[in-house]
Amino acid sequence: MIVYFQAGGLLRDYLKPDVDVYTRKIEVEPGLTVKEIMERINLRPALVSMTLSGGKIVPLSYVPRDGEIIVLRPPVQGG
Q1: What CA–CA distance (Å, rounded) separates 70 from 3?
Q2: Could you report the per-residue pLDDT of 15-42, keeping only the tens digit for each?
Q3: Which residues are CB-contacts of 14 (< 8 A; sequence separation ≥ 6)?
Q4: Strands 2-7 and 69-73, how do they pair?
Q5: Least CB-packed of 8, 20, 26, 62 within 10 Å?
Q6: By C-alpha distance, which of 18, 7, 19 is closest to 34?
Q7: Strand-by-strand arrangement of the 56-58 sheet
Q8: What is the mean pLDDT of the chain?
Q9: Cα torsion at 28, 40, 34, 13 (round to 10°)?
């Protein structure tokens, strides 16, 4: 199964995109949660404040479908 993770900001450096500057293609077995997939690619869940699918917030326990795009948002940054 293929899942796509997208991230911007500093989180993108941890994601290590390979499709474009924001997106990483990940091949995993079906049934894994977003959190489990993150752990498989060595992306600490503590670095992510929000996950979205189809523009809706989903929990880290969400199980994505084949071909789905999961957007990862870092904590709010200021300066």
Answers
A1: 8
A2: 999 999 999 999 999 999 999 999 999 9
A3: 7, 43, 44, 47
A4: parallel
A5: 20
A6: 7
A7: 23-27, 2-7, 69-73, 50-53, 56-58
A8: 93
A9: -110
